[in-house]
Amino acid sequence: MEPFTRSGRPRRTAVVFGGDCGRGAEIARRLGTQHDLNIVVPFIPFDRKRSCANEVVAEIEAQGGCAMALLADINNPAHVEALFKTATAAFGKVDIVVYAQSIPDAVHAKPGRLSGLEITADLAGPEILDMRRP
Predict the structure, then answer these.
(1) How far is CA 31 from the centre of its chain?
(2) pLDDT tens across 99-132, in order?
(3) Alpha-carbon distance 14 to 96, whole Å?
(4) Residue-range definition of the domain harbouring residue 73
(5) Does DNA-binding count among this protein's keywords (predicted)?
């Protein structure tokens, strides 16, 4: 995976929750192909979701982008923590978090928290975009 954009700038990284299907997949594709971002597509542990996430990744990579699909149920703090650690190890840091799926109310209860996971200093600062429909 190329760490720099076509213009020579370091690539930023976006985690797109819900990026494995529907509107979220379209958001992941656009960010990965039109905006030179590394894309992380979390998927829940169902075969159909895994294959959908892998298809989105393949489409992004076929157009010259960088992407990876990772198992991560947003309701499971261990999954979310592992997702951010893996994404950070692969791409250096996470710059943007996109919510394109329904997420639990607990996430909204405390800023800077995902399913009870306190975002640590090396993960702090990602821009958070809520792309869900009201």
Answers:
(1) 10
(2) 876 544 434 433 444 433 333 333 344 555 555 5
(3) 4
(4) 12-130
(5) no
